[in-house]
## 1
Amino acid sequence: MTTAVRFDGVSRHFGSVKAVDAVDLAIGEGEFFAMLGPSGSGKTTCLRLIAGFEQPTAGEIEIFGSPAGGVPPYRRNVNTVFQDYALFPHLSVMDNVAYGLMIKGVGKAERRRAAEATLEMVRLTGYGSRKPSQLSGGQRQRVALARALINKPKVLLLDEPLGALDLKLREDMQEELKVLQRSLGITFVFVTHDQGEALSMADRVAVFDQGKIRQIGTPQEIYQQPTSAFVANFVGSSNVLPADLVAQLGSGHAQASLRPEAIRLVSAGGHPAEIIATSFVGAATKLALQMGDIRLHALIDHRTHDCEVGQQVLIDWNPEDLHLMDGGDE
Amino acid sequence: MRSDKRSGAPTGLKIAAAAGLAFMHLPILLILVYAFTTEDKTYQWPPPGLTLKWFAVTWNRPDVWEALQLSVRVASISTAIALVLGTLCAAAVVRTKFFGREAISLIVILPIALPGIITGISLRSAFNIADIPFSFWTIVLGHATFCVVVVYNNAVARFRRTSGSLIEASMDLGANGFQTFRYVVLPNIATALLAGGMLAFALSFDEVIVTTFTAGQQATLPIWMLEELVRPRQRPVTNVVAMVVILVTFLPILAAYYLTRDGDQVAGHGR
Amino acid sequence: MSNVAITSQPRGDGILARLSDALWRRPTLFLVLLLAPPALWLGIIYLGSLFALLAQSFFSIDEFSGLINYEFTLKTYRELFIPANLDIIIRTTLMATCVTLGAAVLAFPIAYYAARYARGKWKALFYLGVMLPLWSSYLVKVYAWKLILAKEGILNWIFEVLHLTWALEAYLAIPLIGGNSLSVSYSGTFLVFLYVWLPFMVLPMQASLERVSASYLEASADLGAKPLQTFRLVLLPLALPGIIAGSIFTFSLTLGDYIIPQIVGSSRLFIGQAVYTHQGTAGNIPLAAAFTVVPVVIMGFYLWMAKRQGAFDAL
């Protein structure tokens, strides 16, 4: 597989703030790659480094094998869907979409035809003569997408593109983006702080924290085998067991993660705990459990168990569900 | 019965506000009446009769035409210079954070924040020291200096309102710096610049304090008027000129208001 | 830049495009290029002149030859404190204070009504109603008052029609504020100043009143305050930043003006007129320069006081 984007020890420091700190990264061609992390973790800065809006203070970025240092954004075959869409307010939807072609010097009739075709692809046929201010949030989002895709970029960068949409629309767009990416075969690099979005859409996910990548892997790897407490907490609300408890259980001396659905209620053996809260989440009931000094979350099938707040229960899990973490962070 | 508190203002307040507005406008309206009076030796009220003949007299006065022409030329050139300098300055201050940004804003505002007489006498003594004779350009030098702030205020307000990612979006789509300026920046700030330019024109067209120090023997329209004010010689002509000046300055101000009314504050403090 | 993978812009090799590349790679140079023209213009022409003037205030004039003596001295500044000059400074400062107070009182109802009650069309009308007088010709406005205050003018006519001429005469008989007629009295000068600078008070005051939510006033009334108490305890403190911002204009503009007191008023000098005469007919540039420092110092002190009172925090 060709590497679309490669980061080699890339840092971007703003004064004493290390927005991106010695990041190594390789994104394959045709991949749907998500950068996940809390705000201020450096994921958006990484995106801006690829687009060319920021320059690394150290390290090298390569785009399809050629160094990107000193190459201005307008000379990179990379396009961006901005968080606030950044549609040109003085231009019609048609002219917005055709902007890149106009700059390239494509003739008026041809770029009009191309813009209409692209608008059709994002299901906005007939909206060409409107101004961006006359569109809804979801429609603007799709214009921004069309405006980027019409240039046939090698890499499409999406900066929290669904952040401003409401839940239903967001779910529809997630599907639509995935289908679009599969059919076009373009490399998508997608920035989000929503772990559900990252896990459900991406082929691979990089989890960012404080300017560094904490873990890179497929959604399954990230979800089931978080390598640090930060990833476990941020990605899946996993339970994190402290090292001394893990040692007590005889599973080695390190922090370990335990998925809520791996915990089951047992009638004998296991560990005593008290149910301190319950909440209904569709197919299951989510329990908050107090076991000694630690708080655990568990997902329990409510057809098999009655759970009352205050009830004393015994809980257990399979030893292989306990994932030891190298625990690089505090 | 009690009146609806939300919609109605207390009568006292209404009267005071109306009286205040009247105080601001009646003297200007008075000028319009005086332009038609038949009396030519005193400021007699009520006018003994009304006539249009002073318009014809004024029309045929070469000194008024010369002064008007000089004023328009000075205002046009000063506005052009202020447009360039004010826009450059606004772009620099808004786009980037750099050391001394506050100082730059202060220097731009200083020429109107300090009394005009200070600007005027400073320039005059500087011209003296540098041995520069008074000319059309010495007037322009002074006017452009205090006009910059009006353009600057309008441009900064618009830049702030325009999303910074528009420029990035344009470059992302393949436009270089100049294309981005031509196709994205300029269309988005055009009305603000037009408004700023009109206000700058009005400001320069009307300026008298700095001009008295930088004009030497030349007379702009305000200088012509000032001489008439100090030593009235042709009251009816002055009345007509005053009326024309009022009407001429109203138009750009109204236009500037309509150009910037959605969102921007017209830089009213810019004087 | 011929790398196929990165660039695909066919029109990327013009002179402008290459210039754009160069500037993009050197953002500091680009910033310097943007800033240089305005910074040079204002720095050399404006600040340069200002400092040249300031420097001259430290020279003195030779009393016999009338030539400037280019030696550092504070003699000129001492001259500011002789009684005649001190009178000028005190007179001007007092006038500026009165004009500022008068403008605040007159502006408040306009600003408050526009901020609190005017809506839609009326709001626009109020705004233009203040903007138009603000921007219309200064000289024409002064001229209008010359017409109004003239002996045969409209004000005397109104008093006559109302049979109140005796009241006007009684007022003019009051020492200090009175005089032979309104047009040669301090009251006349005050009126014209007030008129010309009033819009400069209304706009910032209205801006600060816009930020006072009506619910504060209702809360105050709800807690038992009488209207006057609400005004004093809630509205006034919240509106203060705007009043101070406006007062900076009215105060500073009055301090530096030399045309209004020359056209309407007694023959006694204000700071602006003193500067004008010293630099003009008298040719005493050092003293004129020293005089211009006075409003700057007073304004500096005024701003410092305002800042200490925390008036800028809310701006």
## 2
Amino acid sequence: MIEMQDAAYGYGAEPLLSDLSLHLPPGSFHFLTGPSGAGKTTFLKLCYAELLPTGGNISLFGHTAGGLSRDGIADIRQRIGVVHQDCKFLDHLSVSENIALPLSVTGKGGMAQDSNLNELVGWVGLTARAEALPPELSGGERQRAALARAIIMDPDLILADEPTGNVDWDMSLRLLNLLVELNKLGKTVVIATHDLALIRAAKQRVQARVLRIQGGQITAAGADL
Amino acid sequence: MSLRGELLAFVRGDRGADRVVPRSGQSARLTFATAAAMAFLAVFAMALSMASGRLADRWSSALAQSSTIRISAPPAEIEAQTWAVLAVLEQTPGIESARALSDEEQQALLAPWFGPDLPLDDLPVPQLVEITETADGYDADGLRQRLAAEAPGAVLDDHDRWRRPLAEAAGRLRILGWLAMVLILAATAGMVTLAAQSALSANEQVIRVLRLVGARDSYIARAFVRRFTIRALTGAALGMVVGLLAVAILPSARDTAAILTGLSFSGASWFWPLIIPPLAAATAFTATRIAAFRTLRGLQ
């Protein structure tokens, strides 16, 4: 699904990440941890081609990231659901319109999809808030709406960047349960977080691999997690 | 997507694509107002071009069908040479009619410069002979040679030296009118590009979200292109209607056919301004599309 071979990325002359070599197989569950500024978000951006590697090679669904056209990148992103900490909604559209946005931009909206949309909105517990505007939502509601938008296209890969950063523990567990449920449906999940309690809670529910980014390198985390 | 595909998608419309970009009041008003003002000016440029062309054609054709012979001779010989000239003209192919102007007619011609009380008998005013040509015209060089032999004081003026500058002026006025149209379209394209770039910059975050969820550049561009094209089309339609009304209420052309009183359309040419709104829309479509793709290339 995603394969990195000696991949590197730097914003300037100094590389932020280097020698990244790993494989994210289909149906796997990964946590990405490390101190703030270590490069977790950069790693995720490399996974959905918002950034392209400055060294090495990254393969996304069998395509070399550096060789993708802009349309090719758009097509790859239709197979990836991304959940950001700040959610990134279009504030002039309702919650349900934001959730359905990936369908709209790919011309896949329609009666059948409307039914799926309602089901999905119910699944994340936002039926009563479906016509609200994003600024009217609480932090937890925003994260659930972002998750619903990330999975409406039935993606193969879900990338979540600090999805529980702005919510309380109960909501964190609720979001985690949704992601675990998706993983059991065969989705690959990668969650960037420095919430160790969340990682421990997840390991009770799913077989998760924990990766740590430190000093620009990525390593498998120890038994403490 | 190909340009043809883009055009089809544009015509079909996409309610979703139309909604993803928030309505930006300032750029909308700017585009609408610019298109309206430019269409208004374009109507006048078109009217000027057509009126000047018509006027010059009229002058040119009127002069082209007539010639003048000026007979300058001592008073005692004027009458004899006039008869000789008329006799030559009668035998010249391509001359429909010829007549010597009367003293009153010659006095009327000179009145604008010398006043109505000009003592024509006391002045050595040449005798004028007016010639009307047939459609085929006559051989001017051959006529000049015969006149030189029969009436040495006669000089043929076939109006060519007047007609040529008029024809050139007509051509230049037409070109200037169309050049003004091109400049107006270019200015419209410039203004629409600026407004589109402003809207694209203001919506950079929206564009990033759309790219994040898998939108192709063509989809994002279409959302902007359709909006700006429709604004330009409606603005230009309004400007065209106002421009046509303004032209319609201008004073109508008189016999003097002065350029200002003749600034209007005639007959089927009233339909020509209908091309202005589609032209403005096509200009906005192209300008916004170029601006959108240029901006999108700068965003991952």
